[in-house]
Amino acid sequence: MKRHGLLMGEIVDGENLRVAFWKAAKGKRGKTECIEFAERLDENLALLGAELRDGSVELGNYHYFKVHDPKERLICAASFRERVLHHALMNICGPLLERAAIFDSHACRKGKGRLTAIARAQGHARANGWFLKMDIRKYFDSVDHTVLRTLLGRKFKEAGLLRLFGRILESYGTAPGRGLPIGNLTSQHFANFYLAPLDRFITERLGRGAYVRYMDDFVAWGEGGAELRDVLDRVRIFLAEELRLDLKGESVINRTRFGMDFLGCRLFPGVVRLARRSKVRFSRKFRRYEKAHQCGRWNSLQLQQRVQALLAFLLPVDSLNFRRKTVSRFGVAARGLQPCVTGWQLEQQREQLPDCEPQQQRPGEQEQQQRVPFRPAPSSAPPLEGGGVDPAAILSPRRRGAKTEQRARCQ
User: How far apart are alpha carbons 72 and 152 in whole angstroms?
Assistant: First the structure.
């Protein structure tokens, strides 16, 4: 494996730092940290570059909060200045880390993602009769710093860069020498790079050509359950000995025609449906968004943006009926519609109004003339004195009788 060096000069280059600032500021323009950093941009970037050169840059200034989507996760949001540092680092080192990835690693990579992983998995499901789905237990919390440093040392040889990597790892830990902070740009790249040896082991040493990984969720396909049980045993041993990781207990071996839960979907060889848990999460979020709009916390544009992002999750899924039912039950504001009276009810109400009573008009309003819908008059309709046609003459006999009864009652 080729080791790369002389990268710190490119990382601290002024143009690279400026590009890192623009990336870090995306979606953060209104934040106080971003505004203050941008007010003295050149000075702040020069100071950051100097601290990177001498190794005195401050790290680990995280803001912690929890999310429940669907399970509880601790998110570590770095300060804006540290986000700029992460982007500057990954602008140069990210492409080099990605070279270790195989084609079927789909998480956090340009040109790939959840949709490509689902499409690729369904293609393998069509061509194979059995699948083995595996997941790593508490992956981000279990990443071993010593193993990761060893892997990074095989990729990079510059001492200053490796020290910076080590300080980033030491800035967070769920246990001594373990854990990556969820929410950092560097964590995404490190987490993908950490499992690159597993990808090579499964595809090359075990000969599994039908294989897909999305971060710590990965699937291998085959023609029988016995061969996949052997793959499962060997993968478990490799993870424990080489990467110091453990598989979750619920690894699944089954026939592809029975369907497989993967990335929020239920994959069959011929169709992709929404998984049951995803349906529950979608409905809960949809109702929560509607409530936020009705309470005034979100305006219509904010509601539209969030619902659009929510619906994007369903793009690869055959879920038209589910979307219609959800929107019809909970989505009055999201549809942009309000409950209204149907056309036949309006027609009924109009026929029940007495024609002899003029419509009340507000003070100051001009007198409104009653409009009669244009319909071509039949040849037998009697003309009026002014050359027009009597509207009653073009009504059906049943409706003419109803109109006559209404006039009689008024008189």
Answer: 30
